[in-house]
Design a protein that fits this description.
Blueprint (H helix, E strand, L loop, with lengths): L2 H20 L7 H21 L6 H21 L22 H11 L11
Helix pairs in contact: 1-2, 1-3
Length: 121
Amino acid sequence: MTACTRRTVLSLYTRVFRIARTWQAQSGVARDTETERKYILQEARALFRQNQQMTDRESIKRCIEECEARIEIGLHYRNPYPRATYLPPMGLATQKGRKLRTQQRLRKQAKPIYLQSHEET
């Protein structure tokens, strides 16, 4: 990881922790605020640790873009949880019928950048 990339990652990490420290739940209830703050901290720690050993520049760049997108979406909607995507299980049509592998590949390609580190449910 280059020094510039390392600086960017560390600044994102500290930015997430600052946001968590000042986070206020949209409902205004103290318990909700505390729950959302804990979620932000746990999610950040888990994802940064999960991606700590990455060396591929493209993968690191995608993770940085995902982090920035999730920060912006969370601040805009005042909701720290990832936004859901609504695609029916076999909702993406293929050219040659509906084959499961093709559907899975299309769903993976249709996944927004802010959900790349979340598993399909």
